[in-house]
Amino acid sequence: MRSVFIIDPDNKLRLTMTYPMNVGRNFNEILRVIDALQTGDANKIATPADWTPGDKVIIPPSITNSEAKSLFPQGWEELRPYLRLTDIKK
């Protein structure tokens, strides 16, 4: 087994990926995850599966609509009460 660990500047483990010895690691996925973690930390958002910079992001349910109005003045699309999508600048 081979493992990849992403540890943030505060020495917090943010990601562990384990691959079998006979399977190569996907460096594009590792870079995508780092982008997603940094974007999420900087903008108080979550990223959906297969997210890449420039795609819509998720406003977490823990952020109320009134709080979201100040954080995301560009607005959002509400697919479900718990699933709100918005655009952000990188």
What do you see in this structure?
- There is one protein chain.
- With 90 residues, this protein is an alpha+beta fold.
- It has a single domain (2-86), classed as Antioxidant, Horf6, Chain A, domain2 (Antioxidant, Horf6, Chain A, domain 2, 2-Layer Sandwich), CATH 3.30.1020.
- The protein is 27% helix and 27% strand.
- The chain is built from two helices and five strands.
- It has helices spanning 27-43, 65-71, and strands spanning 2-7, 13-19, 57-59, 77-80, 83-86.
- The chain has a three-stranded antiparallel β-sheet with strand order 3-5-4, with no helix packed on it. A two-stranded antiparallel ribbon has the order 1-2.
- A hairpin with a 5-residue loop joins β1 and β2 (13-19).
- It is elongated, with a radius of gyration of 16 Å.
- The chain starts with a strand and ends with a strand.
- The model has no long low-confidence stretch (mean pLDDT 95).
